[in-house]
Amino acid sequence: METIKQLITDGKTDEAIRLLDEYIEKNASSDEAYYLRGNAYRKKGDIRQALNNYLTAMDLNPDSPAQIAHDQLISIMNFYNKDMFNQ
After folding, report:
1. Is the model's pLDDT at 87 over the cut of 60?
2. pTM
3. Closest by Cα among 27, 25, 8 to 69
4. Residue 81 pLDDT exceeds 90
5. Coil, helix or strand for 2?
6. Where do the TPR repeats start and stop (predicted)?
7. Which residue of 18, 31, 46, 50 is surrounded by the most CB atoms within 10 Å?
8. Does position 86 have pLDDT exceeding 90, yes or no?
9. Over the stretch 3-50, which tens digit does the pLDDT of each residue have?
10. CB under 8 Å to 31, separation ≥6 — which residues?
């Protein structure tokens, strides 16, 4: 997992996601893997996939750090000034 964390930090999100997909295929109950995959998708800009992975991690472990990441991402999305979108 340390290698995957470093890949995400380095911005190599596609490689991290590929490794996490392989890991999850064999370890479907790993909340940490879903949390990290959520982080990779968030860094890549795919908010929907990030939220889906955070939710899966939270289902597997309600005490997962994915709860905080999920809540923060929702807060960021709610912060946008929707009145400015059409200008």
Report:
1. no
2. 0.88
3. 8
4. no
5. helix
6. 31-64
7. 50
8. no
9. 999 999 999 999 999 999 999 999 999 999 999 999 999 999 999 999
10. 56, 57, 58, 60, 61, 64, 66
- Quote the tokens at residue 28: 């479907």
Supply angle C-alpha 59, 17, 25, rounded to 5: 60
Tokens of 83: 């009145």
Chain centre to alpha carbon of residue 54: 6
* pLDDT at residue 84 greater than cutoff 80: no
Q: What is the 8-class DSSP label of residue 64?
A: S
State which fold the 2-84 domain adopts: 1.25.40
User: How far is the C-alpha of 19 from the C-alpha of 2, rounded, in Å?
Assistant: 12
49 burial level (CB within 10 Å; 0-12, 13-18, 19+): middle
Comparing CA positions, the residue from 28, 9, 10, 8 lying closest to residue 18 is: 8
Indicate the domain borders of the chain: 2-84
